[in-house]
User: Fold these one by one.
Assistant:
Number 1:
Amino acid sequence: QVQLAESGGGLVQPGGSLRLSCAASGSILAISAMGWYRQAPGKQRELVAHITTGDSTNYADSVKGRFTISRDNAKNTVYLQMSSLKPEDTAVYYCNAQGTTTGARLYFERWGQGTLVTVSS
């Protein structure tokens, strides 16, 4: 079993900052990639940022220059530092992790439960 636990969401004023965290735990042999997605009301879930084990990153155009994704491989944790937040960043943010389990060495992909980020004055 592999679980993801997210934290760090909340209410912030436009122009403010927040940091999201997501820790993976359980029968993990290795994590190949982790990422953050978001879903605003009435919209489809979209990729925000993605990072591989080798620290290769990918960002949505809408967040480039404002958001930074990073990871601590030793802790199986991924972070999303969000700055210069805008009302259109309001959404539920979901963590995603892909990797290999211990034992049978099966591929896994897991999603966090989501954390709400609200940008409003």
Number 2:
Amino acid sequence: QVQLVESGGGLVQAGGSLRLSCEASGNIFSINTMGWYRQAPGKQRELVAIITSGGSTNYADSVKGRFTVSRDNVKNTVYLQMNSLKPEDTAVYYCNADIIHYSGRRSPNVWGQGTQVTVSS
């Protein structure tokens, strides 16, 4: 069994910064892509940023230049540094991981419980 635990969300004023963390634990041999998604009230969940095991990244256009995704493969942790936050960044942020277990089996879509980010104007 695998667990993803997010932390670092909260309330911040527009223009401020937050850093989210997500640690994966449990039956993990390796992790392929890790990433962050978000869901605002009344909207569908959307990609924010992803990072491969090799460090390649991809960002939503709306966060390019403001957010930075990184990971620590030893700690099985992915981070999201969010700068110049805007009210429209308000959402629940979810961590996602593509995991290979010790058995060789793959769980390609493991989700965390989510962490709330609220940006006030």
